[in-house]
Amino acid sequence: MQTRFAVLGPVRAWRGGTELVLGPPKERALLALLLTEAGHPVAVHEIVDALWGEDPPDSAVNVVQRHIGALRRLFEPDLPARGESRWLVRGSGGYRLEADADSLDLLRFRALRKQAGQAAQDGRPATATELLMEALALWRGPAASGIAPEVRSHPAFTALDDEHLAAVKEAAELALEAGGGLGARVLVTLRQAAAQHPLDEGLQARLILVLAATGHQAEALDVHRLVRTRLADELGVQPGPELQAAQQRVLGRTPTRSAGTRPAESGAGQGGRADAEAVRPEAVPTVRPAQLPADLAAFTGRREELARVQALLPATDEPASAVVISVIGGMAGVGKTTLAVHWAHRVADRFPDGQLYVNLRGFHPTGSVMSTAEAIRSFLDAFGIPAQRIPAGLDAQAALYRSLLADRRVLVVLDNARDTEHVRPLLPGTPGSMVVVTSRNQLYGLVAGEGAHSLSLDVLSDADAHAFLICRLGAERVAREPAAVAEIIALCGRLPLALAVVSARAVVNPTFPLASVAAELHESEESLDAFSGEAPAADARSAFSWSYQLLTPAAARVFRLLALHPGLDCAPAAVASLAGQRVGQVRPLLAELARAHLISEPVPGRYGCHELLRAYAGELAPTQETEQELTAARRRMLDHYLHSVHAADSVLAPSRERIRLRPHVPGVTVPRLPDQAAADHWLETNRSVLLAVIEQDTRHGGGEHSWQLAATLELYLDRIGRWEEQLGAQTTAVGAAQRLGDIRGQAYGHRALGFVSGRLERWDEADAHLSRALELFGEIGDRAGQGRTHRYAAFLANRRGRHAVALDHYDRASALYREAGLRGVEAMIANEVGWTYILMGKYEDALEECGRALRGHRETGDRNGEAAAWDSLGYAHHHLDQHDRALECYRHGLELYREIRDRYLEADTLVHIGDTHHAAGDDAQAALAWREALGILEEFDHPEATDLRERLKGLAAPGPAPRQ
């Protein structure tokens, strides 16, 4: 009976077809160590050193011997007491595990890599790449994942990770050399490795080159920017020659495309749509964006700076002959955003086609920088472009964005940019528009390469600082204490943010003499470590600490804990979970912090704070809370978001199989979401926060919440078309699950990556991820997980017109669900099979399958599934020209959707009703149904409303729409 071992991922063993249950942690770690040195003896003292480090117990050798005996009995239960083991052999003062490439994945990996090296030497890079991909497919996560971290850090295990990394790099290089579409296949593994090693410049350089070679130039540049940011933030260094060379290759030429892919010059983006097709007449925006934040009512000073920016505009109202770019720079808290927004409001009327604004979060303390892709998508949304008309790839989306700005006069404010590459894809391509960029960094690349005009803000002049205080405290109060005012200005370093905080405290306490304010500031002599060498910030910290010290203890604690939150803002429920209190208890504390200007409430019910204040809170937290208290607060926050997303997903798709969560820890608040509208609103409001939480938990936490959040968020991100965000979140999640050795987490992540890769028409990557997901779900015996993976594969096969392949996947899915005992899902599959028949034009077969789905959903009481089946039946009858029967089916579905309050699908069914009336020649009834659907879609500002308006234009407008 064959015995097999695995160490490339979790440590596992099989005898025949049965997986063996390995023993306690030390025994599992011992096996892992022997597997890494398979065929070579490992001395007992080396084993003791690996398992216990510098402080082994006196009984360590005896414990090792007992574990060896247990492993021998496990592998060979019929071995006599003193018999010689086939697998574990004693000798040379230690133990040797005998294995070969057929019994140990590590040796198989090394053999394949050796063959690949020989093929490369023989001038066969394609064969070498295929061999390396086969070798890399053996990995299920970091070597020996799941054993104790202190043991896992032993050089024997980290050396295996180095072998994996070297193989990934070799595969990337050979794929680039071979061409022929191999780059797309390597991308799956290359992305995962890059996510796990974000600071490995050689690996990131290869990712950039492969992305560019496969047509993803914009994403390649985005990767370079992110790596450069991480290197600066975490290591304090700039990119090395290898990374710089990769960037220059992408910028300096269009990479040679591998065979089987369409050239970038044709306009095909990542999603495979040409830019010319993406910018169709019906995609022209009907919305005039007006995204500028509110102007500061108390704005004072900066006359010279305002005049310099104003001078960039033509004297007349004529559009500029070139794109005008102004870069406003300066330290944190100096007023860059305030100046940019104030000036933008002054000249907004010069840009009749709208104003765009985005906070790029380039210097957010938690590292949650907004990607270029996210910014472009937000601008396309602002123009009202329907989701279905937005091309999938970043390159195509950027082209659509530039096309929308062509021949228009739009003011674009790009706030808090990290560097030049952060904003370059957001620049208009034609004259007429103006761009205002703010950044703490000096964006020399924009000045040199794009002709931008640079304006560096300094702290306020004495006169402007004096006017600043008059505007906030009143002329009379300032005039009464000129010496105190002068001292406050000096101690705050004339920094606007510091002056604002001090002013807020003085306003809240109108009886306090300004001399006491100055005295309190004078007593604090510490400086902000994050801004060492910038003297004004030192006094800003004095101002912050003075305001902080006047808080009640409860409010001060909440302020400190807010530093743990990764997003730009948050709701009271999240704050309550951080603090371990009820929402009613934290609301007055948030109000106290807002009155002190230590946090802000940009929109009702959402709280955030300036990055400088967040950094200050982060400095305070470890001085006032223990590590255990901070860990507990972070866990409560993670549980809040995970269980809240789970609750929202359960409302959106009550019958969908989903991961089971452990109960949340005490002190966590989970919002009540009564219907789909509430669930949608909560998810959209917190979407950017959730993505930041996934990233934060992967980088700084355990990682379990990361993959579970991504898995639970998958349906929503797919539903709203945020496929680039989905790709990033699921890639991060897979990396987290691999580090944990969590096979289930890896399976969920690969499945989601397969589906979103298909959405983006990256078919090779989609197939590879779904195949890996099937393997991983199979390893843990998750039949339902395999079943959904086959359903995903069927959906993507239908998208490619491979309907026979789709039906085969549905057959496999149905069998797997039957094994899992999930009858309700079989009904869903029947409906999906019916829809496939509709796509094939087999409408009678569709009626039979959808009818079976209807009966199944009725048996299980799944009203959502029953409604979907009625809708599919109506669609089939419609195509058979059986219009009366189609309307009857649609109305059954409509009633159910109204009962369960699924407003979006209610509108979808109303659209189908209108289509059938229109096909039957009753345009008046069609208009009534479409008009009612339009009213619902407009409630959600749904992009499909645009299509419906176009349909209504050609019909006679009836009176008010009765309910169907």
Terminal Cα span: 68 Å
Assess the beta-strand content as a share of residues.
5-15%
Radius of gyration over all CA atoms, rounded:
31 Å
Shape: globular
User: Low-confidence runs (pLDDT<50, min 5 residues)?
Assistant: 253-284, 525-539
Task: Write structural notes for this entry.
Helices cover 61% and strands 5% of the residues. It has 964 residues and is mainly alpha-helical. Helix 7 runs parallel beside helix 9 and helix 31 (704-719) packs parallel to helix 33. The protein is globular, with a radius of gyration of 31 Å. It starts with a strand and ends in an 11-residue tail after the last helix. The strands form 4 sheets. A 5-stranded parallel sheet has the order 8-9-10-7-11, with helices on both faces. A hairpin with a 5-residue loop joins strand 1 and strand 2 (12-15).
Please provide a brief summary of the model.
With 964 residues, the protein is mainly α. Helices cover 61% and strands 5% of the residues. It has a 5-stranded parallel β-sheet with strand order 8-9-10-7-11, with helices on both faces.
